[in-house]
Amino acid sequence: MPNESQQVESLVRDAEHDPVVSSLARLLAIGVLALVGVTWKLWTPQTVFPQVPLVRLACDWPGWCDWICLAALVTSAATLLCVGRWGLPSRLASAGIAISLSGFFILDQHRLQPWAWQFFLLSALLSLADDTTVRQGWIWLTVSIYFWSAVSKFDYNFFQDQGPVLVEGFKHAIGIRQTMNRWTESFDVWSVFVLAVGELSVAVLLSIRRTRLTGVCLAVLMHGALLVALGPLGLKHTWGVLLWNLFFAGQTWLLFRVVSTPRSDEAGSRATQRVGLISCRSNGVATGIILGAVLWPILEPVDGCDHWLAWAVYSARAGQLEILITSDEPPPSSPVDYEQILRTIDGVSGVYYRPNVSAWSLKELSVPIYPQYRFQVAVGKDLKRRFQLENMQVVCWRRNRWNGKPTDERVVDLLAGNNSGPSIWNTQPRWSNRE
User: Fold this and answer.
1) What pTM was estimated for this model as a whole?
2) Which of 38, 178, 356, 393 is the most buried (most CB within 10 A)?
3) How far, in Å, CA of 46 to CA of 365, rounded?
4) Reading across the β-sheet that carries 348-355, which strands appear in turn?
5) How confident is the model over 370-376, as a mean pLDDT?
6) Range(s) of the domain holding residue 335
7) 42, 105 Cβ separation under 8 angstroms
């Protein structure tokens, strides 16, 4: 006769019956494999771009830690793709994804890409919760991403800079040539407004059961427009950006459009109740994780949450940071492109060379640079050490949300142990003590 653990596992398989959750689990596995695949260099112990661990303790951890995490991540995602939502193997595979991603985040903050953070949360949810809790948690996480992303767009700089760039990319992709007149200028302004309001509308519509079908259609339309604007015919963004939009469109369609048929048999009901008693605590932990992720962005304006972890992907409210080098000519033997600019620092004007670290990140790793002060300060430290750049200054400031003007400008001391944010977060590049 089967022992108690086998009976429990059998009950878990009987209770976890939602085909939508199984499809979502496989979609998550595909998303992990695809996005890690197109950004593969980011997940290796590479040295072409500075790595900045989340905590100082990890600065000297060896490169084989990255390879272990990568092997665990790929194996777990492949397993989840095969088994879907089938009992214990599915939970273990989901836990493997969550644990390996958390290891990656500790080893390098650059890996806290918005999609990687989302995948971490979803895999943790799948590993801990039953199907009912998984579906509800997935719904509210998705709604919160749309909501906070929309809120971040109600910003002077988005309406003046990022928004018009997206609109221009869309117009270029569909063959509309720019002709400056009153009609086209009004079209651009209203298009940016519709983009921000449209995303907020998606969040509201998806949060109300009766309007979810409308929300799904609007979300798919929005992601389709973004794929056109950001794709090869538009702004030519990286594959990571495009695949994340595809993932979001598919996820929203599965999660909100398809309604699974509940089990009506009495045996299934009893199994669900018994498993509910067994997994009550893990459901509570899963709910707490998702609730924390949903509410945490409230602290982003006061530096209590990183910009990307608050889903402020296209917002310019992230702190601005410039690395400036005083020199008569650009530094030699460097993979970084430099721009010569005239800059005033502390009331003194001068000519500087500014390395384009954002383009460097895209060129080497196929991902945008992590926007936090602390990460980019560490990149400046690594540049100075790696290429023997003297006379370097790092200047940071913020943009006012309502008028776009720079505020709180200050020069960062690169010799300081920690230059920005809570003291527990690291601002030293990895392996900086090596010769």
Assistant:
1) 0.89
2) 393
3) 9
4) 338-345, 348-355, 320-325, 392-399, 406-412
5) 91
6) 320-412
7) no
